[in-house]
Amino acid sequence: MEQVTAYIGIGSNVGDRLAYLQGAVDRLAKLELTSVTSVSRVYMTEPFGDPDQERYFNAVAAIETVLDPTELRSACKAIERDLGRPDEYQRWSPRTIDLDILLYGDLCIETELLSIPHAEMHRRKFVLVPLLDIANPEHPRLLRPIAELLKSCGDSSVPVRLAKKLKISRIDQI
Fold this sequence. Notes:
The protein is α+β, with helices and mostly antiparallel strands. About 25% of the residues lie in helices and about 25% in strands.
């Protein structure tokens, strides 16, 4: 399989949120046949769904991988478990870490377990703003660049860019 650029949304609103985001980036960098090529700034955002919880820290990582989408999803789920997220959880509940495949090249796939591009990404500023920090890819279903989707996004939230940055660990540094 050839190398593909994928974008992974990363979020946390429990405990040391920045450490969980960094842990996720570090573990993505350790994935076989995968490298992290860039990471957005960190943004603080209001929780989606249940407002009675801590604010989220959100970021997006760009990766180059030869893992297929199903393998990448499994790897992301393993990273979530490794960072303390249970396999079963209530939708929109607080979480130590959340990893979502936002885009995988220009692939469109819809299965019971996997939706690429992420079904709600064009409606969520906490995804679009950090993604636009590192790239402006075209949404393969809507056929519009991310910058254009952000301009027309109905989400009224205001992601707050934090001064904190995540580091991209190279495999030989880990």
